[in-house]
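Deliverable D4.2, example record:
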Amino acid sequence: MNGYLQGTIYRGTGKKFCVPGLNCYFCPGTLGACPIGSLQAVLNSPKYHFSFYVIGFLMAVGAFFGRFVCGWLCPFALVQDLLHKIPIGKKLKKIPGERYLKYLKYVILAVFVILLPLTITNIAGGGTPWFCKLICPSGTLMGGIVLTALNPSLRAGLGFLFGWKVLVLLVVVVWAIKVYRSFCRYMCPLGAIYSLFNPIALYRFEVNQGKCTGCKACQRVCPMDLPVYQTPNTMECIRCGKCLKACKNHSLHSTFSKDMG
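Output generated by the structure prediction step:
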């Protein structure tokens, strides 16, 4: 809380440890490190190009929970949930080009998080955290805007880059109001990483085909509009759990459910 009141960034030992969700280093209230920011910090370093800690952390969290992190542990996901509750206009479950747009987050992961920091370097051999610099709306909202509002010296140095990041944030905000979790669906590289583990994570969903009637109640309540009764562990599932509550036949369970039916 002191960070918000003083317009400063916490720089203590907690910043050495990653948290599961998207959590900008520059947010005055953050006490831990964002795994995407930490990964880029290593990739654009002139001394190191691989971090056993960050990669191991992502693999461990992904192997246990998959995109459960997206559903329950990411601060920017909560922001999107709140934005989507704003009663403005018609809400959309899907948009034209959905089948292709869902792959955009993997392109962002490959290009802006990995390739550009590794290949575009300065004279000292260091790179740039391109995703954080050009795209990440979480950093703009929870870090950039807050810090510049509270710190007059920072406001004096604002330029084109800050304006660009605010524009990206505005687009994401409007998109999130209309489409549930639009940033998670189409743009988040951290969600892209965790999605790779969804089919094999310890926490996953299972369908008892002997009880399932194919009523599609799970799909109707799914905010991502996924046919859970057919593919319960698709890479797009954020594990919100609404489908589990909607299944009246008790044919859908998680691997942690007491009653596996």
